[in-house]
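Here is the promised in-class demo. Please do not try to memorize the tokens; focus on the logic of going from shape to residues.
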């Protein structure tokens, strides 16, 4: 699923000053069981609207806003994440957030909703691998058992004291959204916490 999210290359990356790839693993592990990379230049919009305008916003952004908090929906590589009863985070294709912002702010419901472009404030990290849930559990208090945290679910939580939004794409594939200022701290924690499983950090997709 992640390959549909980002394809363009412009702007700056959170890990651009780091020497990549990074690989840490015990000698007895041949292949890293955790893979990490930044999803580059992903557009991000924070939208506030009450239930009266939810369907209209969904039609304008061409992606359904979830009815319940802590869930997400996706369509054609665009994701809508419910952060609360009236708050949503939209992940869009690179540059798509600017178009969506204009569409929403020029619509006939503009005065009833709030649209904020937060693309530069947050980065998105793709985490995958057969040990990824065990790895994330080392720093996350949420129950990440596959029966409890499933595909298309999301949660706001802490990982190693950094506040993040965690999205489940597939059983062994997650997106972690964190503030750009915490990105390198989180990367350092991931490298340390993932060493026992073997972790490979590559350039962004």
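The designed amino acids, position by position:
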């Amino acid at each position: 699923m992640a390959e549909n999210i980002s394809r363009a290359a412009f702007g700056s990356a959170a890990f651009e000053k780091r020497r990549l790839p990074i690989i840490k693993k015990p000698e007895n592990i041949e292949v890293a069981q955790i893979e990490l990379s930044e999803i580059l230049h992903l557009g991000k919009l924070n939208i506030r609207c009450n239930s009266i305008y939810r369907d209209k916003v969904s039609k304008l952004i061409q992606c359904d806003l979830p009815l319940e908090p802590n869930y997400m929906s996706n369509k054609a590589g665009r994701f809508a994440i419910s952060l609360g009863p009236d708050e949503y985070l939209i992940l869009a294709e690179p540059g798509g957030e600017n178009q969506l912002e204009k569409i929403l702010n020029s619509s006939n419901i503009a005065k009833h909703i709030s649209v904020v472009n937060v693309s530069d404030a947050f980065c998105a990290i793709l985490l995958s691998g057969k040990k990824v849930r065990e790895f994330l559990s080392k720093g996350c208090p949420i129950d990440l058992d596959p029966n409890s945290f499933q595909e298309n679910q999301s949660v706001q939580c802490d990982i190693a004291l950094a506040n993040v939004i965690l999205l489940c794409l597939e059983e062994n594939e997650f997106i972690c959204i964190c503030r750009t200022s915490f990105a390198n701290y989180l990367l350092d924690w991931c490298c340390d916490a993932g060493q026992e499983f073997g972790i490979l950090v590559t350039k962004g997709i």
